[in-house]
Write a structure and sequence with these properties.
Layout lengths: L6 H10 L5 E2 L3 E2 L7 H7 L15 E6 L3 H13 L5 E5 L4 H5 L10 H14 L6 E5 L9 H11 L3 E5 L13 H10 L4 E4 L5 H11 L3 E3 L2 H5 L3 H9 L9 H16 L9 H10 L4 H10 L5 H16 L1
Parallel strand pairs: 1-3, 2-3, 3-4, 4-5, 5-6, 6-7, 7-8
């Protein structure tokens, strides 16, 4: 999720609990190997043994259409201690697809295989190589070909977003395709797409038969969802975060991100997250309306505190 799940967001979400591993925003690879500073900028957790400060492993994601430069960058990342190399074959963005990256590669399963194979050969065996695909590009007919291509190329795990590129993010997610992939592959298959609530998770688990799941937009809109799922799997009754709890997290997040941007962009990261939170929290809508034109750190901080106190009564 480019521009959303940077290191601060990763650490914030992971500290809430329920997450076993997370993935960086993608690093777009064209023809050359990047200097180390690029990797550290996108994944500062490399300074911490490729783990968040809450001690959750971080996989570094690469995106591109040429096996050799992707493999060279993957090799260097492995040398720097990346917890795993994740390969993006799922991004549906037009700009990315026009530049030979992401979901457009699903039109040629042999290229998916060749990229995965090149990376698997380039990095040491202890470093996992994982991949993420959609169900296809223009339609879902090639879903199994691409899954097999990634597995045969040497991927240790495969995450499947249950839509094609043409499907975009429109409901529904076609979880039944993931079940077919899981039955055909010997490697772990991770289900992804439209898991917004605990009930969604239960349905996805029932349909796919998967043991592992990737949360994206659903986790940003309900940050306690992963912990709720973990509690459910342990036979307990998990609870979502109430607004007072979340307000404390938002305040910490805002303080951590405020120094990253000039004053004219003050609060943009917080406002971006509030956009996701409005799906489950009416309070997020009210807070967003109050701060959407605000550019002063103190004013935004006070607005978060007022919101917490108001809804805590």
């Amino acid at each position: 999720m480019e521009g959303v799940v940077d290191a601060i967001m990763r650490d914030t979400i992971c500290r809430i609990g329920g997450i076993d591993a997370c993935v960086t925003e993608f690093i777009r690879v064209t023809d050359h190997q990047y200097p180390d500073k690029v990797f550290f900028r996108r994944c500062p957790e490399l300074h911490n043994n490729s783990r968040t400060y809450g001690d959750i492993p971080v996989r570094v994601q690469l995106l591109g259409g040429k096996p050799e430069p992707i493999a060279a960058n993957a090799q260097r990342l492995a040398e720097l201690g990346a917890a795993a190399i994740d390969l993006n074959f799922g991004c549906p963005a037009k700009t990315v697809n026009k530049n030979d990256g992401g979901a457009c590669l699903l039109q040629e399963p042999n290229r998916v295989h060749d990229i995965v194979y090149a990376v698997r050969q380039a990095v040491p065996q202890p470093t996992p190589v994982t991949a993420k695909i959609r169900l296809g590009f223009n339609d879902r007919s090639s879903y199994l070909d691409n899954a097999m291509a990634a597995a045969n190329g040497g991927a240790n795990e495969l995450t499947v977003h249950a839509r094609s590129k043409a499907d975009g993010y429109r409901p529904p997610a076609y979880w039944e395709y993931i079940a077919n992939i899981r039955e055909q592959l010997s490697i772990p298959v991770i289900a992804n797409g439209d898991i917004w609530t605990l009930d969604d998770f239960k349905r996805c688990q029932s349909i796919t038969g998967c043991n592992d799941f990737m949360l994206g937009r659903g986790l940003l809109s309900q940050p306690g969802l992963a912990m709720q799922i973990k509690s459910h799997q342990a036979g307990a009754q998990g609870k979502t975060l109430d607004w007072q709890q979340l307000s404390t997290i938002l305040l910490t997040f805002f303080s951590a991100t405020a120094c990253q941007y000039p004053s004219q962009y003050m609060g943009n990261r917080l406002k971006q997250w509030l956009h996701y939170l409005t799906r489950h929290y009416d309070q997020a809508k009210n807070l967003f309306e109050e701060i959407k034109r605000c550019r002063e750190q103190q004013s935004i901080t006070q607005a978060i505190i007022r919101s917490s106190n108001q809804w805590g009564l």
